[in-house]
Known about the structure:
This protein is an alpha+beta fold and 125 residues long. It is built from 2 helices and 11 strands; from the N terminus they run βαββββββαββββ. The strands form 2 sheets. Strands 1, 2, 3, 4, 7, 8, 9, 10 and 11 form a 9-stranded mixed sheet that branches. A hairpin with a 3-residue loop joins β9 and β10.
Amino acid sequence: MAARLRHLAINADDVQRAKGFYEAVFGWRFEPWGPLDYYQVKNVGDGFLGALQGRRELKPGHRMLGFEATMAVEDIAATIAAVEAAGGKVVTPPIYIEGVGRLIYFEDTEGNLVGAMQYDPGVFD
């Protein structure tokens, strides 16, 4: 099965300012979830999760700019193997997010950082 775009995160230097901006521009509704200054976007699209979070570095010296995309995959181990076989580089070890799934970030052959998540059963039900 082909990977599906399932998650879009907005990285912000000022989370509250960004929250106000996207509420005003797109009418998105944000709800606090998890750590301080992390929000889920509740009405970003059917079968799609959105987030607003503080800007971070997933790879030393590489700040996440713009939107951060995460693809839904069936098997995170197979995805890691495929990324490496195709010339990409996994930049974070698998991280388990309770009630969501296992997540990695990788760098593609062009230097773009992308997320891949093996979602837990029932997340999109």
